[in-house]
Amino acid sequence: MKIDNKPWFWIPLLNFASGLPYAVIISVSVIMYKNLGITNEDIGVYTSLLYLPWVIKPLWSPFIELHGTKRKWFLSMQLLISIAFLLVGLTIPANGFFMMTLAIFWVAAFASASNDIASDGFYLLVLPENQQSFFLGIRSTFYRLSLLAGNGLIVLFAGYLEHKYGDNTKAWSYTMIAVGLLMTFITVYNFIFTPKNEINAVANIKEEHQNQNFATVFISFFKKKQIGLILAFILVFRLGESQLLKMLSPFLLDGKELGGMGLDTESVGIIYGTFGVGALTLGGILGGIAISKQGLTKWMLPMFLTMHLPIIGFILLAFFHPTSIYYIYAVVILEQFGYGFGFTAFMMYLIHVAEGESKTAHYALATGFMAMGMMLPGMLSGYIQKYLGYDNFFIWVLIATIPGLILSRFLTFPKDFGKKSEEV
Fold first, then answer.
1. Which DSSP letter does residue 276 get?
2. Which terminus of the chain is more exposed, N or C, with fewer CB under 10 A?
3. What dihedral do alpha carbons 147, 137, 367, 337 form, nearest 10°?
4. Residues 26, 175: one domain?
């Protein structure tokens, strides 16, 4: 039976609906809480805990695959995310808003992680195999555009409202309500345009077989060669980055008397949401090209160094506090390009870890450990920054990248892994 399928109509916004909630929950929330008077220590702890649903999502992915259709799941989850963001906006003016909004973000995070599981499965079931590789690039592009919308346009909008009303509470309340309405529109769009039949008998049989043996699949992951080293590497590789990401926005927003750069919300939105995402995207594209031409072995160390060395730029900003904003632009562009370029190697290695039977489940487990490596150090980042000050904090962040670099030199994988085959 032929599936009524027009991928250009549904793939872009389906993947936009995966990236936007993640950006708002993990990144935009940091800026929001900072501007609403929450301390760096609390921001580090509580917003890092929001990673948890992505850490443990492999544990409930079989339930999503066994009950109901993927389409019903992602539409339900997107609607729940929309309601959650509206509630965050309505709750911000209330007393005790911090814990109430965190609880709502927590629900939205679980819904977002579930939406990711269902959307990925839907893509594999509905799209013919001969189109999947082509539209993989489209998925990635619109996911990155959703990050641009979250870290850029939404933060810019909030900054504009802060200046208009002179009231951060009102500005962020209206901003989150607007995000909720945007997610509602996306949900309705996906309801109208996503295919309504998930007919792929072979895939369904395979998935059912995998789900029935999930315990075996789970255990087989921990029987992989070098699994102890692999897990140690995955957990510590982002030790520095996890702390950097939580404290960068506070550093840019804090005044000079606190050791920060004293920028306003709009400036942060422009820097990270436009130039930053552009550099990140370019780095990711070039990283993929480099690995496809010469393989992961040749590029792993150079890419990791490219990812970590730009932290030196933030050390210099923290020590010298240049008055020109162009220095900040330069550092952020270098850091985001290096992150996009270097992170490609890390994700390619995770693909290698997942090779073999049960590839999807093992990749989900690997990315779950990756999220754990972001969550735990991020929780301590605010306390470390408070104790060290921004200047010494960034030195510590650079030092924290060293264990991952050392462990990477002991990993084994095929020499030409990731290299594009020359065969026609």
1. I
2. C
3. -60
4. yes
CA 322/CA 144 separation, integer angstroms: 30
Number of compact structural domains in the chain: 2
CATH code, domain carrying 52: 1.20.1250.20
pTM greater than the 0.85 cutoff? no
Backbone phi and psi for residue 28, each to the nearest 5 degrees, phi listed first: -65, -35
CA 280 to chain centre: 12
Q: Which residue has the tokens 């939404």?
A: 154
Residue whose pair of structure tokens reads 């789900």 in the numeric block:
211
d(CA 325, CA 340): 23
The DSSP element (H or E) to which 313 belongs, if any, is helix 311-320
Residues 76, 120: Cα–Cα separation, whole Å: 15
How far apart CA 62 and CA 361 sit, in angstroms, is 9
Q: Do 1 and 138 fall into the same domain?
A: yes
Q: How far apart are CA 20 and CA 36, in angstroms?
A: 21
Residue with tokens 């060293």: 402
* Whether residue 163 is found in the same domain as residue 231: no
AA identity, residue 397: V
Identity of residue 81? I
List the structure tokens of 15: 């993947």
Which residue has tokens 């962040």?
397
Q: How far apart are CA 377 and CA 45, in angstroms?
A: 9
Q: Are 307 and 285 in contact (CB under 8 A)?
A: no
- Report the run of H or E that residue 298 belongs to, with start and end: helix 296-308
Token digits for 263?
């920028």
- Over the range 112-142, which residues count as b (16 or more CB within 10 Å of their CB) and which as e? bbbbbbbbbbbbbbbbeeeeeeebeeebbbb
CB 318 within 8 A of CB 259: yes
How far is 168 from 153, CA to CA, in rounded Å?
17
Q: CA 349, CA 371: separation in Å to the nearest integer?
A: 15
pLDDT digits over 206-232, tens only?
544 444 556 777 788 888 889 999 999
Structure tokens that stand for 296 in this block: 């992961």
Structure confidence by residue, pLDDT tens digits, 4-43: 567 888 888 988 999 999 999 999 999 999 999 999 999 9
Question: Quick one: angle between helices 325-353 and 296-308, nearest 10?
Answer: 150
- Which residue range is the domain that position 96 belongs to? 1-212
